C-alpha cells in the first residue's frame, strides 16, 4: 500500500498535543467533512499545545475485518491520492482520502444544553462501535477535479434489517453521511434538508458496496447531490438517492 | 404501571420452550412487525416444544435509562392497551404495544448465502447495543381503530451527527422502522421502496421525540404511509417523511 499524502494529511490532523475533539467532525453531517479551504486552518490548530495528548483512531484506515473487495477498492483509490512527477517529486493525485474519527467538536452543541455525561460520552453514530467489522466499515475519497465522491462500505453483522440483509436505515445513514460529506466539500458547512431514497435491491449483510456521489447543481445556499449505491463492479444498483443540503455559517456550528 | 394485555402478549410470544428466533422480526422492516391476523398463529407457535429455551429481552419495556418524558408517554399509551368493562372484565384497548427483540428469523436470509459467523452474530440494527440508553430507546404502539401508529423515541449519546444533535441517518432509521411497522400492520409483510425525508429542525442528543404515522393510501401492492417527528407535546416539528412500501409474499421472506 502506498504511503499516500492522504494518509499523511490524516496523521498531521490527528497527531498528539492538540485537542483531539477538534477537527474530527467539522460540520453537522456524517464523517470528517472538511472543505478544501479549511484544511490549512485545521493543520494550524493541530500544532497548538493542549493538555490532552493521545492519538485518536482513524476509522478510515484498513483493519483485519476488511474483506478482499473492501481492500481492493481502498487500494484502487488510495493509490491515486499521491502521484510521482517525472523528476521524482511526489504531489497530490486527483483523489483524497478523508480520515474519520468518532468524536465531534467538544463544547460545540449548537446552542443546546446537554448534560456533561451525554456530552462526554457522545460518539459519531457511524463510528460508535469499536469492534472492527461489526457495523459500519467505510472509507470516503473525494475527487476535486471531477467534483465526485466515492465511499467503499462494508456492512457488518450488527446492521441487520430484513433477515440476512442491511437495514434500510443503515443504508440511509451511509447515504446521508457520504452525500453530506460531498456537499460540505463543495460548499463548506451544510445541514441536510432533504433525502429522497429509492430502494431497488436489498444489500446482503456482510457485503461490500460502493456509494458514488456527484453534484447535481448549486443554487444560492442550496447544494443538490445525487448518490448511487451499487455492488463493487457497479453492475447492480441497490439504492439511489438525492440529497438537498443548506449552507450554514460557522456561527450555527459553534452554537451561535 | 398497568399490567396490560399488550405486555401479556409480549410474554406469551417470548416465553421459553420455543425457538426464540421465531416471532422476533416477522418482516423485512424494523422491529417486530406483526399484522393483526398473524398474532394468533405466533401465539400458537409459542407453545410448541423446542430444544432452545431462554427468555429473550424485550427492548420495548421501560428500563432505568428512560427519562421522565419517555416514561410519561409510555404510560400514556400503555394504559390504553387494556380497559376494564362495566362488569369488571378486562379487554383490549385501542392501542397495542409491540414487543421488540434484537434477532431476526434464523436461517431466513432471503435466499442469500451468509457465512455462519455473520448469521449467528447478526443483530437488528436498532437493537444492536445492549447498554441501556446509549443508542435507540423506543417503543411502538399501534391503533387499529384509527389506523395510526406512534413511537416514543429517546436518542442516546451514541447517535450523534451534528455536534450535540442526532445524526440524520439515525432519524431516517427510526422513520424507516416505524413507517415500516405501520405498513406491515396494515398490509402484512412489506419492503421499503421509497423514503422521502424533510429535516426541519435538528433533534438534541438525549432528548425524547414522538414519531406519529398514518396511512395515506393503499393501491394494489403499494402502501403509502406518512410520518411526523415532533417534540413530546407535538408543538415543534423536527422531521417529516413519506414512505412507500411494497407487499411481499412469505416466500420472499423465507428465502423463496
From TrEMBL, chains A, B:
One of its GO terms (molecular function) is hydrolase activity. Its EC number is 3.1.2.2. Residues 164-234 form the Thioesterase domain. One of its GO terms (cellular component) is mitochondrial intermembrane space. InterPro entries: HotDog_dom_sf, THEM4/THEM5_acyl-CoA_thioest, Thioestr_dom. The keyword Mitochondrion applies. Keywords: Apoptosis, Cell membrane, Cell projection, Cytoplasm, Fatty acid metabolism, Hydrolase, Lipid metabolism, Membrane, Mitochondrion, Mitochondrion inner membrane, Transit peptide. GO terms for biological process: apoptotic process; fatty acid metabolic process. It holds the Pfam family 4HBT. Its main location: membrane. SUPFAM superfamilies: Thioesterase/thiol ester dehydrase-isomerase. Gene3D superfamilies: Hotdog Thioesterase. The keyword Hydrolase applies. It is found in: Cell projection, Ruffle membrane; Cytoplasm; Mitochondrion inner membrane; Mitochondrion intermembrane space. It is a peripheral membrane protein. It catalyses: decanoyl-CoA + H2O = decanoate + CoA + H(+); dodecanoyl-CoA + H2O = dodecanoate + CoA + H(+); (9Z)-octadecenoyl-CoA + H2O = (9Z)-octadecenoate + CoA + H(+); hexadecanoyl-CoA + H2O = hexadecanoate + CoA + H(+). Belongs to the THEM4/THEM5 thioesterase family. This is Acyl-coenzyme A thioesterase THEM4. It comes from Salmo salar (Atlantic salmon). The lineage of its organism: Eukaryota, Metazoa, Chordata, Craniata, Vertebrata. The gene is LOC106592246.
Amino acid at each position: 500500500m502506498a504511503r499516500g499524502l492522504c494518509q499523511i494529511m490524516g496523521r498531521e490532523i490527528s497527531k498528539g498535543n492538540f485537542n483531539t475533539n477538534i477537527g474530527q467532525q467539522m460540520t453537522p453531517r456524517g464523517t470528517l467533512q472538511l472543505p478544501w479551504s479549511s484544511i490549512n486552518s485545521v493543520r494550524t490548530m493541530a500544532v497548538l499545545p493542549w493538555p490532552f495528548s493521545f492519538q485518536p483512531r482513524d476509522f478510515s484506515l484498513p483493519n483485519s475485518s476488511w474483506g478482499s473487495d473492501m481492500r481492493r477498492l481502498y487500494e484502487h483509490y488510495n493509490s491515486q491520492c499521491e502521484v510521482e512527477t517525472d523528476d521524482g517529486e511526489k504531489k497530490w493525485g486527483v483523489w483524497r482520502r478523508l480520515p474519520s474519527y468518532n468524536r465531534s467538536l467538544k463544547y460545540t452543541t449548537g446552542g443546546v444544553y446537554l448534560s456533561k455525561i451525554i456530552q462526554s460520552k457522545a460518539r459519531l453514530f457511524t463510528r460508535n462501535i469499536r469492534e472492527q467489522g461489526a457495523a459500519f466499515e467505510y472509507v470516503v475519497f473525494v475527487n476535486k477535479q471531477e467534483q465526485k465522491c466515492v465511499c467503499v462500505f462494508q456492512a457488518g453483522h450488527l446492521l441487520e434489517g430484513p433477515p440476512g440483509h442491511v437495514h434500510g436505515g443503515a443504508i440511509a445513514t451511509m447515504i446521508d453521511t457520504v452525500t453530506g460529506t460531498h456537499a460540505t466539500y463543495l460548499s463548506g458547512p451544510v445541514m441536510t434538508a432533504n433525502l429522497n431514497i429509492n430502494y431497488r435491491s436489498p444489500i446482503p449483510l456482510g457485503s461490500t458496496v460502493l456509494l458514488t456521489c456527484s453534484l447535481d447543481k448549486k443554487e444560492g445556499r442550496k447544494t443538490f447531490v445525487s448518490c448511487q449505491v451499487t455492488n463493487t463492479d457497479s453492475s447492480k444498483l441497490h439504492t439511489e438517492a438525492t440529497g438537498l443540503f443548506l449552507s450554514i455559517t460557522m456561527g450555527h456550528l459553534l452554537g451561535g
